[in-house]
Fold:
Amino acid sequence: MNGFGINIDEINCGSVIVSINIDPAKHFNHRGICHGGVLTALTDDVTGVTGASVGAAVATLNFNMNFIKSVRNAGMLYVKSKVWHHGHLTMVIEAEMYDDKHTLSATILATMFIAYRFAEIPEKW
Structure:
């Protein structure tokens, strides 16, 4: 998806799963855990793709991320999202981040501004 190594694994109307293969040499901080910036970048990517899945080009107004458990090992990290609210100007997206053993790492709630609509992507499909 970008130079960060984020993959789009699944897209449905209003829900998305993205992943990243955590590499300690690239993604860990000086304390030996995955840097929070990596986790927030993954979050920002999933919200943008989730908005696009319902035909909306979105920009982040606000997101809250609750870090539940540190990511301390190499391996796949996933974020599964869904649209909670799809208004005319805003969208609310909920997401959960977990590793390949299904250990919850973070919960996310994001409010997105709908900048415009993609003509080629329907709101419902």
